[in-house]
Amino acid sequence: MTRIVIAGAGLGGLTLARVLHVHGIEAVICERDTGRDARVQGGTLDLTVEGGQWALEEAGLTEGYRAIARPEGQDMVLYDQAGTLLRQEVAPDEGAAQFGRPEADRPKLRALLLDALPESTVRWGHAVQRAESLPGGGHRVHLAGGETLEGDLLVGADGGRSRVRPLLTPADLEYTGATGVELVIADADRAHPEVSALVGRGSFSAIGTQRTLSAQRCGDGTIHVHLTFRCPADWVRTSGIPFNDPARARAALKELYPGWAPEILALVDAASGPVTVLPLHALPPGLRWPHHPGRTLIGDAAHLMSPYAGQGANLAMQDGAELALAIAGGQDLRAFEESMLARAERSARMSAENLDRFLSPRGAEGVRELFARMAGEPV
Protein backbone atom coordinates (compact mmCIF):
# COMPACT_ATOMS: atom_id res chain seq x y z
CA MET A 1 0.00 0.00 0.00
CA THR A 2 1.31 3.48 -0.93
CA ARG A 3 1.45 5.55 2.20
CA ILE A 4 0.51 8.97 0.77
CA VAL A 5 -1.67 9.63 -2.29
CA ILE A 6 -2.02 13.20 -3.51
CA ALA A 7 -4.79 14.14 -5.93
CA GLY A 8 -3.57 16.93 -8.20
CA ALA A 9 -0.18 18.10 -9.50
CA GLY A 10 -0.77 21.80 -9.03
CA LEU A 11 1.57 23.97 -7.00
CA GLY A 12 0.13 22.80 -3.67
CA GLY A 13 0.37 19.10 -4.44
CA LEU A 14 3.85 19.42 -5.91
CA THR A 15 5.11 21.44 -2.94
CA LEU A 16 3.72 18.83 -0.57
CA ALA A 17 5.44 16.02 -2.48
CA ARG A 18 8.75 17.88 -2.71
CA VAL A 19 8.96 18.78 1.00
CA LEU A 20 8.04 15.19 1.88
CA HIS A 21 10.82 14.02 -0.46
CA VAL A 22 13.30 16.33 1.30
CA HIS A 23 12.38 14.51 4.53
CA GLY A 24 12.77 11.07 2.98
CA ILE A 25 9.06 10.38 2.54
CA GLU A 26 7.76 9.46 -0.89
CA ALA A 27 4.27 10.09 -2.23
CA VAL A 28 2.32 9.43 -5.41
CA ILE A 29 0.53 12.25 -7.22
CA CYS A 30 -2.45 11.38 -9.44
CA GLU A 31 -2.93 14.04 -12.11
CA ARG A 32 -5.54 14.26 -14.86
CA ASP A 33 -3.19 16.03 -17.33
CA THR A 34 -1.54 13.59 -19.72
CA GLY A 35 1.86 15.26 -19.26
CA ARG A 36 3.60 18.30 -17.84
CA ASP A 37 3.04 20.24 -21.08
CA ALA A 38 -0.46 18.98 -21.79
CA ARG A 39 -2.07 22.42 -21.38
CA VAL A 40 -1.22 26.06 -20.81
CA GLN A 41 -0.42 26.54 -17.11
CA GLY A 42 -1.48 30.17 -16.78
CA GLY A 43 0.36 33.43 -16.44
CA THR A 44 2.48 34.86 -13.66
CA LEU A 45 2.42 34.69 -9.86
CA ASP A 46 3.83 36.82 -7.07
CA LEU A 47 5.09 34.78 -4.14
CA THR A 48 5.21 36.33 -0.68
CA VAL A 49 8.14 35.88 1.70
CA GLU A 50 5.96 34.18 4.32
CA GLY A 51 3.94 32.12 1.80
CA GLY A 52 5.29 30.71 -1.44
CA GLN A 53 8.90 31.76 -0.85
CA TRP A 54 8.93 30.14 2.59
CA ALA A 55 7.49 26.94 1.09
CA LEU A 56 10.21 26.88 -1.57
CA GLU A 57 12.84 27.38 1.12
CA GLU A 58 11.48 24.30 2.93
CA ALA A 59 11.62 22.52 -0.42
CA GLY A 60 15.30 23.45 -0.86
CA LEU A 61 14.51 25.42 -4.02
CA THR A 62 15.22 29.05 -3.11
CA GLU A 63 18.17 29.32 -5.48
CA GLY A 64 16.19 27.84 -8.34
CA TYR A 65 13.29 30.16 -7.62
CA ARG A 66 15.44 33.27 -7.62
CA ALA A 67 16.82 32.23 -11.00
CA ILE A 68 13.32 32.37 -12.54
CA ALA A 69 11.85 35.23 -10.48
CA ARG A 70 11.37 38.66 -12.08
CA PRO A 71 11.65 41.41 -9.46
CA GLU A 72 10.76 44.02 -12.09
CA GLY A 73 7.36 42.32 -12.34
CA GLN A 74 6.44 44.10 -9.09
CA ASP A 75 6.01 47.35 -11.06
CA MET A 76 2.37 48.47 -10.98
CA VAL A 77 0.27 51.15 -12.66
CA LEU A 78 -3.33 52.01 -11.80
CA TYR A 79 -5.67 53.96 -14.11
CA ASP A 80 -9.30 54.93 -14.18
CA GLN A 81 -11.45 54.13 -17.20
CA ALA A 82 -10.76 57.55 -18.74
CA GLY A 83 -7.05 56.75 -18.91
CA THR A 84 -5.97 58.93 -15.98
CA LEU A 85 -2.96 57.55 -14.12
CA LEU A 86 -3.88 57.26 -10.43
CA ARG A 87 -0.89 55.43 -9.01
CA GLN A 88 2.49 54.04 -10.06
CA GLU A 89 4.86 51.80 -8.11
CA VAL A 90 8.35 50.84 -9.29
CA ALA A 91 10.18 47.78 -7.98
CA PRO A 92 13.59 48.30 -6.31
CA ASP A 93 16.52 47.46 -8.57
CA GLU A 94 18.73 45.91 -5.90
CA GLY A 95 18.88 44.58 -2.37
CA ALA A 96 16.63 42.21 -0.47
CA ALA A 97 13.56 44.30 -1.35
CA GLN A 98 13.79 42.93 -4.89
CA PHE A 99 12.39 39.71 -3.54
CA GLY A 100 9.56 41.17 -1.47
CA ARG A 101 6.99 39.79 -3.86
CA PRO A 102 8.58 39.20 -7.28
CA GLU A 103 6.72 37.65 -10.19
CA ALA A 104 7.47 34.17 -11.52
CA ASP A 105 5.78 32.53 -14.48
CA ARG A 106 3.57 29.66 -13.34
CA PRO A 107 4.93 27.21 -15.98
CA LYS A 108 8.52 27.79 -14.81
CA LEU A 109 7.54 27.50 -11.17
CA ARG A 110 5.73 24.24 -11.82
CA ALA A 111 8.71 22.94 -13.80
CA LEU A 112 11.05 23.84 -10.92
CA LEU A 113 9.01 21.66 -8.57
CA LEU A 114 8.56 18.81 -11.05
CA ASP A 115 12.29 18.67 -11.82
CA ALA A 116 12.99 18.34 -8.09
CA LEU A 117 10.90 15.17 -7.79
CA PRO A 118 11.60 11.60 -8.92
CA GLU A 119 9.98 11.03 -12.32
CA SER A 120 7.80 8.29 -10.87
CA THR A 121 6.13 10.66 -8.40
CA VAL A 122 3.50 12.00 -10.79
CA ARG A 123 1.17 9.57 -12.54
CA TRP A 124 0.10 11.55 -15.57
CA GLY A 125 -3.26 10.89 -17.15
CA HIS A 126 -4.62 9.40 -13.90
CA ALA A 127 -7.60 11.58 -13.05
CA VAL A 128 -9.15 10.91 -9.67
CA GLN A 129 -12.81 10.03 -10.19
CA ARG A 130 -13.80 9.33 -6.61
CA ALA A 131 -12.41 8.00 -3.35
CA GLU A 132 -13.76 5.85 -0.54
CA SER A 133 -12.72 4.95 2.99
CA LEU A 134 -11.55 1.39 3.67
CA PRO A 135 -12.89 -0.55 6.69
CA GLY A 136 -9.40 -1.11 8.13
CA GLY A 137 -8.28 2.50 7.61
CA GLY A 138 -6.86 4.26 4.61
CA HIS A 139 -8.58 4.95 1.31
CA ARG A 140 -9.15 3.51 -2.11
CA VAL A 141 -8.84 6.00 -4.96
CA HIS A 142 -10.67 5.24 -8.19
CA LEU A 143 -8.87 6.60 -11.25
CA ALA A 144 -10.02 7.23 -14.79
CA GLY A 145 -9.72 4.06 -16.80
CA GLY A 146 -10.72 1.80 -13.94
CA GLU A 147 -7.44 1.58 -12.03
CA THR A 148 -7.47 1.92 -8.25
CA LEU A 149 -4.83 3.00 -5.77
CA GLU A 150 -4.84 2.57 -1.99
CA GLY A 151 -3.12 4.75 0.60
CA ASP A 152 -2.90 5.44 4.30
CA LEU A 153 -3.28 9.19 3.72
CA LEU A 154 -5.26 10.83 0.91
CA VAL A 155 -4.69 14.53 0.22
CA GLY A 156 -7.04 16.45 -2.04
CA ALA A 157 -4.97 19.05 -3.87
CA ASP A 158 -7.20 18.85 -6.93
CA GLY A 159 -8.62 22.34 -7.10
CA GLY A 160 -11.98 23.96 -6.59
CA ARG A 161 -13.93 21.07 -8.08
CA SER A 162 -12.12 18.54 -5.95
CA ARG A 163 -13.21 14.90 -6.11
CA VAL A 164 -11.77 14.38 -2.62
CA ARG A 165 -13.60 17.20 -0.84
CA PRO A 166 -16.96 15.31 -0.63
CA LEU A 167 -15.22 12.87 1.73
CA LEU A 168 -14.81 15.69 4.24
CA THR A 169 -17.60 18.21 3.67
CA PRO A 170 -20.71 18.69 1.54
CA ALA A 171 -19.73 22.34 0.94
CA ASP A 172 -19.69 23.31 -2.71
CA LEU A 173 -18.63 26.26 -4.82
CA GLU A 174 -20.69 29.43 -4.92
CA TYR A 175 -20.74 31.93 -7.79
CA THR A 176 -19.30 35.28 -6.67
CA GLY A 177 -21.43 37.37 -9.03
CA ALA A 178 -18.48 38.18 -11.27
CA THR A 179 -16.96 36.65 -14.39
CA GLY A 180 -13.52 37.09 -15.89
CA VAL A 181 -12.35 36.78 -19.48
CA GLU A 182 -8.70 36.12 -20.30
CA LEU A 183 -6.97 37.22 -23.51
CA VAL A 184 -3.31 36.93 -24.51
CA ILE A 185 -1.15 39.40 -26.43
CA ALA A 186 1.70 37.58 -28.16
CA ASP A 187 5.16 39.09 -28.77
CA ALA A 188 3.96 42.32 -27.17
CA ASP A 189 7.17 44.38 -27.36
CA ARG A 190 7.64 43.89 -31.10
CA ALA A 191 4.07 43.58 -32.37
CA HIS A 192 2.36 46.10 -30.06
CA PRO A 193 4.95 48.53 -28.66
CA GLU A 194 2.41 51.17 -27.54
CA VAL A 195 0.36 48.64 -25.62
CA SER A 196 3.54 47.16 -24.18
CA ALA A 197 4.67 50.59 -22.96
CA LEU A 198 1.27 51.21 -21.33
CA VAL A 199 1.49 47.97 -19.32
CA GLY A 200 5.13 48.49 -18.37
CA ARG A 201 7.33 45.84 -16.76
CA GLY A 202 4.73 44.45 -14.38
CA SER A 203 0.98 44.82 -13.88
CA PHE A 204 -1.58 47.25 -15.25
CA SER A 205 -5.07 47.88 -13.85
CA ALA A 206 -7.86 50.12 -15.11
CA ILE A 207 -10.93 50.43 -12.89
CA GLY A 208 -14.40 51.51 -14.00
CA THR A 209 -17.92 51.18 -12.69
CA GLN A 210 -18.40 47.54 -11.70
CA ARG A 211 -15.77 46.37 -14.18
CA THR A 212 -12.03 46.21 -14.53
CA LEU A 213 -9.50 45.65 -17.29
CA SER A 214 -6.11 44.46 -16.11
CA ALA A 215 -2.94 43.08 -17.66
CA GLN A 216 0.21 41.32 -16.50
CA ARG A 217 3.48 40.92 -18.36
CA CYS A 218 4.96 37.40 -18.46
CA GLY A 219 8.56 36.38 -18.94
CA ASP A 220 7.88 34.79 -22.33
CA GLY A 221 7.05 38.11 -24.01
CA THR A 222 3.29 37.73 -23.73
CA ILE A 223 0.87 39.95 -21.85
CA HIS A 224 -2.16 38.33 -20.24
CA VAL A 225 -5.23 40.56 -20.27
CA HIS A 226 -8.22 40.09 -17.94
CA LEU A 227 -11.64 41.69 -18.23
CA THR A 228 -13.77 41.23 -15.08
CA PHE A 229 -17.33 42.42 -14.52
CA ARG A 230 -20.55 41.80 -12.65
CA CYS A 231 -23.00 39.54 -14.46
CA PRO A 232 -25.52 36.75 -13.77
CA ALA A 233 -24.29 33.18 -13.38
CA ASP A 234 -25.77 32.21 -16.77
CA TRP A 235 -24.20 35.14 -18.62
CA VAL A 236 -21.87 32.99 -20.72
CA ARG A 237 -24.87 31.14 -22.14
CA THR A 238 -27.21 34.10 -22.50
CA SER A 239 -24.81 36.84 -23.63
CA GLY A 240 -24.94 35.85 -27.26
CA ILE A 241 -21.19 36.39 -27.59
CA PRO A 242 -19.62 33.82 -29.99
CA PHE A 243 -16.69 32.78 -27.83
CA ASN A 244 -15.68 30.18 -30.41
CA ASP A 245 -14.97 33.06 -32.81
CA PRO A 246 -12.25 35.03 -31.00
CA ALA A 247 -12.26 38.09 -33.26
CA ARG A 248 -16.02 38.61 -32.96
CA ALA A 249 -15.90 37.82 -29.24
CA ARG A 250 -13.25 40.47 -28.60
CA ALA A 251 -15.31 43.06 -30.50
CA ALA A 252 -18.38 42.17 -28.41
CA LEU A 253 -16.41 42.35 -25.17
CA LYS A 254 -15.29 45.90 -25.96
CA GLU A 255 -18.96 46.91 -26.15
CA LEU A 256 -19.22 46.02 -22.45
CA TYR A 257 -16.79 48.91 -21.75
CA PRO A 258 -18.53 51.96 -23.27
CA GLY A 259 -16.76 55.26 -22.82
CA TRP A 260 -13.43 53.70 -21.82
CA ALA A 261 -10.25 55.31 -23.12
CA PRO A 262 -9.21 53.96 -26.55
CA GLU A 263 -5.64 53.34 -25.36
CA ILE A 264 -6.97 51.00 -22.67
CA LEU A 265 -9.30 49.12 -25.03
CA ALA A 266 -6.31 48.75 -27.37
CA LEU A 267 -5.26 45.91 -25.04
CA VAL A 268 -8.28 43.96 -26.28
CA ASP A 269 -7.53 44.78 -29.93
CA ALA A 270 -3.93 43.61 -29.56
CA ALA A 271 -4.90 40.15 -28.27
CA SER A 272 -4.98 37.07 -30.45
CA GLY A 273 -5.85 33.41 -30.02
CA PRO A 274 -8.59 31.89 -27.87
CA VAL A 275 -10.87 33.80 -25.53
CA THR A 276 -11.08 32.06 -22.14
CA VAL A 277 -14.13 32.69 -19.97
CA LEU A 278 -13.61 32.24 -16.22
CA PRO A 279 -16.70 32.58 -14.00
CA LEU A 280 -15.38 33.33 -10.50
CA HIS A 281 -16.44 30.84 -7.84
CA ALA A 282 -15.47 30.49 -4.19
CA LEU A 283 -16.01 28.22 -1.23
CA PRO A 284 -17.77 29.81 1.76
CA PRO A 285 -15.29 31.90 3.81
CA GLY A 286 -14.75 30.28 7.18
CA LEU A 287 -15.45 26.76 5.91
CA ARG A 288 -14.60 24.07 8.47
CA TRP A 289 -15.10 20.32 8.58
CA PRO A 290 -14.75 17.64 11.27
CA HIS A 291 -11.30 16.10 11.34
CA HIS A 292 -11.19 12.76 9.51
CA PRO A 293 -8.04 10.65 10.08
CA GLY A 294 -6.40 9.60 6.85
CA ARG A 295 -7.68 12.37 4.60
CA THR A 296 -7.38 16.13 4.24
CA LEU A 297 -7.42 18.96 1.71
CA ILE A 298 -5.06 21.76 0.71
CA GLY A 299 -5.14 24.72 -1.66
CA ASP A 300 -8.23 25.52 -3.70
CA ALA A 301 -9.76 22.17 -2.77
CA ALA A 302 -9.93 23.45 0.81
CA HIS A 303 -10.47 27.19 0.40
CA LEU A 304 -11.05 28.40 -3.15
CA MET A 305 -11.51 32.17 -3.27
CA SER A 306 -11.62 34.89 -5.90
CA PRO A 307 -8.23 36.16 -7.11
CA TYR A 308 -8.71 39.55 -5.47
CA ALA A 309 -6.56 38.74 -2.44
CA GLY A 310 -3.67 37.58 -4.64
CA GLN A 311 -3.05 34.70 -2.23
CA GLY A 312 -4.19 31.51 -4.01
CA ALA A 313 -0.79 30.14 -5.01
CA ASN A 314 0.86 31.32 -1.80
CA LEU A 315 -1.74 29.63 0.37
CA ALA A 316 -1.58 26.39 -1.62
CA MET A 317 2.20 26.19 -1.41
CA GLN A 318 2.25 27.11 2.27
CA ASP A 319 -0.45 24.47 2.89
CA GLY A 320 1.65 21.84 1.10
CA ALA A 321 4.85 22.66 2.97
CA GLU A 322 3.16 22.83 6.39
CA LEU A 323 1.32 19.56 5.82
CA ALA A 324 4.58 17.86 4.79
CA LEU A 325 6.33 19.10 7.93
CA ALA A 326 3.45 17.89 10.09
CA ILE A 327 3.61 14.45 8.47
CA ALA A 328 7.39 14.27 8.78
CA GLY A 329 7.11 15.26 12.44
CA GLY A 330 4.48 12.64 13.19
CA GLN A 331 2.02 15.32 14.26
CA ASP A 332 -1.74 15.06 14.49
CA LEU A 333 -3.08 16.63 11.29
CA ARG A 334 -5.96 18.21 13.20
CA ALA A 335 -3.69 21.07 14.27
CA PHE A 336 -2.51 21.57 10.68
CA GLU A 337 -6.08 21.83 9.42
CA GLU A 338 -7.06 24.32 12.11
CA SER A 339 -4.09 26.55 11.28
CA MET A 340 -4.61 26.25 7.51
CA LEU A 341 -8.33 27.06 7.64
CA ALA A 342 -7.89 30.01 10.01
CA ARG A 343 -5.25 31.49 7.70
CA ALA A 344 -7.39 30.84 4.63
CA GLU A 345 -10.44 32.41 6.24
CA ARG A 346 -8.61 35.71 6.68
CA SER A 347 -7.57 35.70 3.02
CA ALA A 348 -11.00 34.59 1.81
CA ARG A 349 -12.74 37.44 3.60
CA MET A 350 -10.16 39.88 2.24
CA SER A 351 -10.72 38.45 -1.24
CA ALA A 352 -14.48 38.95 -1.02
CA GLU A 353 -14.06 42.50 0.28
CA ASN A 354 -11.57 43.36 -2.46
CA LEU A 355 -13.81 41.91 -5.18
CA ASP A 356 -16.58 44.22 -4.00
CA ARG A 357 -14.13 47.13 -3.93
CA PHE A 358 -12.72 46.52 -7.43
CA LEU A 359 -16.18 45.99 -8.94
CA SER A 360 -17.85 48.79 -7.01
CA PRO A 361 -20.17 51.50 -8.35
CA ARG A 362 -17.55 53.93 -6.98
CA GLY A 363 -15.19 52.93 -9.75
CA ALA A 364 -11.47 53.59 -9.29
CA GLU A 365 -11.63 55.72 -6.13
CA GLY A 366 -12.08 52.82 -3.71
CA VAL A 367 -9.17 50.93 -5.29
CA ARG A 368 -6.93 54.00 -5.15
CA GLU A 369 -7.72 54.31 -1.43
CA LEU A 370 -6.92 50.60 -0.91
CA PHE A 371 -3.45 50.90 -2.42
CA ALA A 372 -2.76 54.07 -0.43
CA ARG A 373 -3.69 52.33 2.84
CA MET A 374 -1.55 49.31 1.95
CA ALA A 375 1.40 51.66 1.47
CA GLY A 376 0.71 53.44 4.77
CA GLU A 377 -0.19 56.67 3.00
CA PRO A 378 -2.99 59.09 3.87
CA VAL A 379 -6.18 58.40 1.95
UniProtKB/TrEMBL annotation:
InterPro entries: FAD-bd (IPR002938), FAD/NAD-bd_sf (IPR036188), TetX_monooxygenase (IPR043683). Its cofactor is FAD. NADPH binds at R39. Pfam families: FAD_binding_3. Residues 2-176, 297-329 form the FAD-binding domain. Coiled coil: none annotated. One of its GO terms (biological process) is response to antibiotic. GO terms for molecular function: FAD binding; monooxygenase activity. It catalyses: a tetracycline + NADPH + O2 + H(+) = an 11a-hydroxytetracycline + NADP(+) + H2O. It is found in: Cytoplasm. Consists of an N-terminal FAD-binding domain with a Rossman fold and a C-terminal substrate-binding domain. This is Flavin-dependent monooxygenase. It comes from Amycolatopsis jiangsuensis. The lineage of its organism: Bacteria, Bacillati, Actinomycetota, Actinomycetes, Pseudonocardiales.
